[in-house]
Structure formats: structure tokens, C-alpha cells
Amino acid sequence: MKNWLLTGLFFMVVSTVFSQGKITGTITDGIVSLPGANVVIKGSTTSTSTDFDGKFTIDSPTNTGELYITYLGYNNLTVKFTVSKGATTNLGKIVLESDSNQLEEIVVMGKGIIDLAKDRKTPIAVSTIKAAEIQAKIGTADITQTMVNTPSVYVAGQSGGYGDSRISVRGFAQDNTAFLLNGQPINGMEDGKVYWSNWSGLSDIANAVQIQRGLGSSKLAISSVGGTVNFITKATEKNEGGFVSLGVANDNYFKTTAAYNTGMSKSGWGTSVMLTHWQGDGYNDGTKGEGQTYFISVGYKANDKHSFNFLLTGAPQWHDQNFTKSIDSYLKYGRKYNNNWGTQNGEYKSERTNYYHKPVANINWDYDISDKTQLSTVLYGSWGRGGGTGSYGTKPATPAGGQINFDGILASNQAIVDGKGNADARSTNGAYVIRASVNNHAWYGLVSNLKNQLTDNLALNVGLDLRTYKGTHFRQVSDFMGLSSWTDTRNLKDGNSNPSGTMKSNYVTESGRALPWPGTFNTIAEDQRIDYDYGETISYGGVFSQLEYSNDNFSAFFQGSLSNQSHSRVDRFDYLPQNQDSKKVNNVGYNVKGGTSYKIAEQHTIYANAGYYSRQPYHDNIYLNFTNAVNPLTENEKIFGLEAGYTFASKIVTASVNAYRTSWKDRVTTTSTTATAADVVKYPSLQLGDLIYKTNEGVEQVHTGVELDFVAKPTHNLNLTGFLSVGDWQYKGNTVTTTRDESLSTLDKVQQDVDGGKVGDGAQVTYGLGFRYEFVKNLSIDADWRYYDKLYSNVGAVKNNLELPSYDLVDSGISYKLFIGKGKHDSIGFRVNVNNVFDEVYLSELTTATAVTPTSNNYKGINVANTGYFGLGRTWNFSLRYNF
Q1: Cα distance between residue 110 and residue 293, in whole Å
Q2: pLDDT at site 566
Q3: CB within 8 A of 51, min separation 6: which ones?
Q4: Strands 64-70 and 38-41, how do they pair?
Q5: Which of 195, 410, 559, 639 could form a disulfide with 593 if both were Cys (CB 3.0 to 4.6 A apart)?
Q6: pLDDT value at position 845?
């Protein structure tokens, strides 16, 4: 006992001799705190890590010295310090710079508009991916790929082509997950969907992506059933500089980017610009693509109270598409098989091309009224132009080789006896053209938020959200395929959507090119449109508020919003002139959310949240069968969510556990697949390969689950991450299923019992681990492993869904940065990624649920008659970047 006391006394003396004082501080990236950042006193073995709030305390063996600070994805930083013996020196806020930002040292605008989790002290289930990780790992993929290592998130559709992926959050599809760009809603106002090909430039301009699972922190009345995904883009840089980069990847992918910023002048002005071009053949056959991204941001700081920023960005692109097909077809022709293309006169030609250009512009105004009151306002607009091509008329059967015989189609069209090349749509004379389904829109909005710090502990936010949207949808001929014209004839409808007996024909001789830039500026005349021509006007007005109380250990919030949404429809193609305008429909919706958190100890926090949404139905569900007839059965969808969680934060490990239950009633979902031989027999109006849409109405979904994620930094050069999510997502009650063809005509309607059926299109069990190890300064390797299980077919609400085989994937990468020149940013960086390192063969999704039979041919226990996609095999990409 005596020896132990002497030993303890010895260490106390040594500690007193060698510890001159304490150094404290808070490490951030200028926006959020950085938990787990490594802090080392140069020339010693003394080190520590920041806690959950980015704070650190370290004992210094000397009264002067330097701290060496490192954090994954950020430039290392050296900070000098001086401390008196026995005293404490607070270095305050220390800001690290991201080493992979496209436009670094941003001026954050619209702080009151962008609903980041950090802005509300009451916790939520959240994951944040910074620009450094996005730039390092995105490669040729959509921005959705950055979210794959997140609990309860599943990315599907990647095999369709560039920009055709989609994600589900906690089992809810994209139309029931809210997506925000700098606080502005970007879910389609007609159907709530998001098409990532329209946002292919996000990976270049994103400063961060934050996934708020469940109720989230957004104050808006938005469709956050599964969660909210915030994309925070660059703004105007403070310092002069820029970069150029080059990327190459599998399947002839090539990408170049250049950016420059003037820096902020003494008069308060600054400009940042970026331009990107990319092109590639696509992983699967017949999925070529090409596009650009442009970005310009102009900032002006008028004085200490007023800051402005104008931003314009867009990503015009075209890409050929691959659709789902039977497993049997893949086994016959190979896993990269795509039946949407062929050759004409020996040249590659695709029947299915998506082309779109959606410029987005906004003006932000931040007004610091006083120390306690701030006003943030954003005025925004977007203008979508483009569409997708496909067959129209009589499509010949697919030849034995599996590809489209365009030469045969051309010869068949030229042999039509009409002489003028006229043909009625789907007529018996066998005529065929390639059409384009055009979807244009103009969207304008304003979001404004006033924040007032009522007391030291109580803050109030109030604001408004205004939007107006006008869409135009029609079809036009994209390629006449040897014909000189096309005649479309239909029986016009009366005010009750019944045939009137009045026939009308469009004699079409003009076509439009399926390219984004021509599609941006050229719109075909109304008398040159085929199949359909309609539009809608949607107006939205909402108010919102949030009240939050917080002290050192406790916080609570209450949040609410109220909105009115109006809809009207005009059909210029199928109705008599006096009946083209529909009845106007108004719907009122609201949501309320509340929650509380409590820090039970320095490293331990618990929270609980609850919320209720009464959400208006989407426009496409208000009008029956895409006509002007109002659906009398539509009503607001009811969503009730509960969640609770626990967070542990130490100097080495930060971990969170979340539990949730979400009930969604009166919901409507729509899925699509391609027509099989059985579908053609059942619905004679269909042809092989046609798209089929199925809409499920009236059913309830109940999603429950538990999530775990953690980050750890056991040493200054090793980072560890991990996640686990276990869900139980089921349908309750009965559903009505409506089947429609590609022209949105109803094929049939069936009621069925789906109680206990499994929700598909998202793995209900996922887990993964990742690491990053820095061998020497600026040279590192990283890898991520993830496993998917309990993945069911994407067939909407069914009683007996089909479970896909489980699978796991490994992605890996190597990064190196070499500093050159005299400037602190002058450097050359290299990055190599290999995704699906072990070339795992797996089914990533199915769109049918055909059971195994005694006579069926099966693949891994799945009937090969089922349609879907195989996942991507091994892919790679390499990037080189010069910063100046």
C-alpha cells in the first residue's frame, strides 16, 4: 500500500512539473463543430481529441509552443500558443478549411433559411457528409451515392444510366422524403419526385449534404415522412484562387472542371465561377451520356448588417437509359444487357434518351437587425426544359440478337403505301416514330425567416413560404424514322371527361431534337404535338414558426406550420375548347412537431420527438387518370411520427442510437415496370417493353426501427466509422391498385388485402464499417464495407412480397496531396477509387414479385421471370486536381 501511495505521489509531482498550464478551444469548419478532431502539442506525445461540441482541453508541458490539429477531409493546421504556469489559455474558435472544397472559404448565406440540425439544440437523427468526402468518393455516380454509408438509406436505380438513381429513407421513397437546396424545396410539385439527372452538378457545388432521418429540423410544411435531405451549396469565396481538375473512369468516362474566384474586395464584392464538362459510355450497354455544370455566385457585403448573394447554377445533360427487364434476359445476353438501343446504317442509336436542363437562380439577403434579431430571405426560380424519348406507333418485335433493328424499322416506314408518310398512332399500317415526352416548367418562390432571441434561453422563429409552379407536358416527334409526317386523331372530351363525338387531327411535320440546349430555347407549336398536351398551375402559401428553450443541460422545442395549396389543370389536346380548363381545387395542410433533450451527464444526452402531418395530396392524385375530372376520394395524408435517441460523445468516440415509429395513412404510391409477354396477353393494347404504372391508394404503412452510428478516432492518423439499422416496414389494411399504360390510360383497377405485407425498394436491415488511415502526412487509404438484407421487390402494396438475396459491397480509395508553390492553397491532389472491389454479383432491385413454381427456372432462389436490375460490378475512377 505504501509503494502505491509513493508511486501516485511521484506521478502527481511529475505532472505538476511538466504541466505548465491548460489550453482550451473549439474547432469548427466555420459552419459546424468538428467532433473527434485530433490535437497534438508539437514536439511531445501529448494529444487529445475534441468532444461532441468540437471543444478540447489539453495540458501543456511548456509555456509556449504550437498545436498541430488534424481532421479527416480538412487541411492540417498549426496554431501557436502561450500559457502561464497554472493558468488556462482559451484559443477560442479555431476554423479548419476543407481540403476538397470546390469553392473554399465560403460565405454562408441564408443562415435562417437552411434548416441544419446544428441550428436546433434539440437533437434529431442526422448524418452529415462534408465536401471533402463528397469530392473524394463521388466518382461518376449521382450525388445519392454519398449517402450509402448512412443508416436506413438505400440507393437504387443506378443501373438505369447516369442520373437515374433514387434513394429511400427509412423505407420511404423520394416523393415522401423532403429534398432542399439551400433551404428551398426541390421535390416536384406535381408528384413529389426528384430526378437526379436534373441535379448532376450537385456533386461539384455541394459544400455539405445533411440527411435528417425522420421528423427533421425543417420548419417548412414539406413531405418529410422518411426524412429531410439538405444540400448546401457553395457561395462566394472570401479569398482569390481557384482550381482545375481532371477525372477519368471506367467505360470511357472523362470529366474536366475549372473554377476561379476573385475574392472579396475592400468594397465588399466578390465573384466565384465554375464550369464542368463530362461524358461517358455508361456501365451498362447503351447508356451513353454527356453534360455540363455551370455555377456563378456573386456576393456583396454592404455593411455589418446587410449581406447579399446571387447564385445561378445548372446542369444541362443527356443520357441514354436502361430499363428493368427479366432476369432471364440478363442470363441470356449478359448482366450489362440493355434492349433500348441498336444500330442504324452501322451507327449507334438509342430509343430511350433523357435530356434536361434546369437552371436554378436565387438571391439571398441576410439582415442582422440587432444582436438578438436576424432576418433571412431567399427569392428563387427554376426553369425546367426537356424530356425523354421512346417508341410511338407500332414497334416491331425485338430481333433474335436482343437489340432494336432500326434499319428494318426505317425500311418498313418507307414502304408505307400512303405516299405522304401519314400514319395514325398505333394504326394497323405498322408505322413507327421515336417520340419525346416533354416536361417543361417554371417555378418561383420566396422563403423568409425572422429569428428573435427573446431571452438568453428562449428563441423564436417565424416565417413564410410562398411558391408558384406552372408545368407544360406534351409529346412531340423526335425522329420520323423515314416518314415525312404523322397524323394523330382523337375523340375530344366534354366537360364530364366523356367522348363528345367531335374528332380532331394533328397533322405533324415538325420534330424536336432530344438535346438539352435546343430543348431549352425551342418549344414546338401546339398543332405539332402528339398523344397529349396538358399543363397545370400549382400555388402554395404557408406560414411557420418555432419556439425553442435551452440551457446548459436541457432543451425543448415546438414547431408548427399551416399551408394552402391550390391546383388547376388545362388540357389542350383531349378536350373541347370550352372544356379545356379544369375545376380549381384547394387543400389546406399543416404539421406540428415538438421535442425535448436532456444532458444526463457531460458525455450523455437523451432526446425524444413527436410530430403529426396533415399533408395535401399531390397534384397527380387530385385529377383522375390524368384528365380534368376531379378525384372525389382524395384527402390529406396523415403521418404520425415518434422517435427517441441517445448520444454518447467522448474525446475518442461519438455514437448515437435512435428508435422510431412512423405511421402513414391514406397514402398513395406509384411504381413502374416494363410490359412482359404476360402483360401483353392481359392488356392487348400494350406492346413488349412499354412502361406500366401501378398506383396504390388507401393503404396504411407503419415503419418502426432502430439505428446506430458512430465515429471514432483512436489515434491521430486513424478514423473509424460504422452504422447499423434494423427496420420493420409493413403495410396495413386494404389497398386499391390502378394499372395504367405509358399514355396514362387506365388498364384495370383491383382491391386487395395487403395487411402485413413488406414494404419494398429499400433494405430493411443494413450495417457497415469504414476506416481512413493516414500513412504519412497527406497520404491516406480508406475503405467502406456495407451489408444489405431484408430487401423486397418494389411492387407497391402487396400481401406476399418477394425477398431478394442479401449482399455486401466494399469500396476503397487512396488520396495524396502535394503542396507546391508559395501560396497556402497551392497543391496537386490525387484520388483513386475502386467501388465494389470484389466484383460482387447481386440483384439491386426487382419490380415484380413472381413466386417460384415447380416448373420455373430460378436464379439464387428467384424466379427468372421477375424483372429488375443487377447491381454495378467493379468500377474505378481517378482524379487529379491543381489548386492555386
Answers
A1: 23
A2: 96
A3: 35, 603, 649, 650, 651
A4: antiparallel
A5: 559
A6: 95
DSSP structure string for 600-640: EETTEEEEEEEEEEEEPPPHHHHBGGGSS-B-TT---EEEE
The reported pLDDT for the residue numbered 686 is: 87
pLDDT, position 810: 98
How many C-beta atoms surround the C-beta of residue 543 within 10 A? 17
* Cα(619)–Cα(443) distance, integer angstroms: 15
Per the CB < 8 A criterion, the answer to whether 844 and 213 are in contact is no
Q: Of 752, 758, 755, whose CA–CA distance to 793 is shortest? A: 758
Residue closest to 759 by CA, chosen among 144, 152, 67? 152
Which grid cell is 138?
463521388
Q: At residue 73, does pLDDT exceed 70?
A: no
- Average the pLDDT over each of 176-185, 726-735, 803-812 and give the range with the smallest value: 176-185
pTM above 0.90, yes or no: no
Burial (CB < 10 A; 0-12, 13-18, 19+), residue 854, is exposed
Can you give the three-state secondary structure of 814-838, one letter per residue?
EEEEEECCCCCCCEEEEEEEEECCC
In the prediction, which pLDDT does 306 show? 93
Please check the confidence at residue 814 and state whether its pLDDT lies above 60.
yes
How far apart are alpha carbons 392 and 424 in whole angstroms? 10
Rounded Cα–Cα distance for residues 201 and 516 (Å)? 14
Question: 510 phi and psi, to 5 degrees?
Answer: -110, 150
Copy the grid coordinates of residue 244. Answer: 482545375
The cell 431571452 sits on which residue? 455
Q: 858 forms bridges with which residues in the sheet?
A: 863
Share of the chain above pLDDT 70, in %: 92
pLDDT of residue 102: 35
CA 128 to each of CA 150, 207, 683, 697: distance values in angstroms, whole numbers, following the listed order: 9, 11, 47, 34
Backbone angles phi, psi at 408, to 5 degrees: -65, -40
Amino acid, res. 116: L
Cell output for 645: 435517441
E-strand spans in 616-733?
637-649, 653-674, 691-715, 718-732
C-alpha cell at 828: 496537386
SS3 of 154, please?
strand
CB 828 within 8 A of CB 820: yes
Cell 450525388 belongs to residue: 143
Question: How confident is the model over 666-689, as pLDDT tens digits?
Answer: 876 666 677 888 888 899 888 887
Count the Cβ atoms, other than its own, within 10 Å of residue 193: 15
Q: How far is CA 86 from CA 3, 59, 854, in A?
A: 28, 10, 82
Q: Which tens digits make up the pLDDT trace of 553-588?
A: 899 999 999 999 999 999 999 999 999 999 999 999
Give the whole-angstrom CA distance, residue 204 versus residue 206. 6
H or E element that contains 94: strand 87-95
**Cα Dmax for the chain:** 113
- What pLDDT is stored for residue 12 in this prediction? 40
> Using CB atoms within 10 A of its CB, is residue 756 exposed (0-12), middle (13-18) or buried (19+)?
exposed
Count other C-beta atoms under 10 Å from residue 560's C-beta: 18
Q: What does the block give as the cell for 601?
A: 451527464
Place of cell 475518442: 652
Element (DSSP H or E) covering residue 783:
strand 779-789
pLDDT digits (tens, 9 = 90+) for 415-441: 776 545 454 444 447 789 999 999 999
DSSP 8-state assignment for residue 396:
P
Please name the residues in contact with 55: beta carbons below 8 A apart, sequence gap of 6 or more: 24, 25, 26, 33
pLDDT at 420: 52
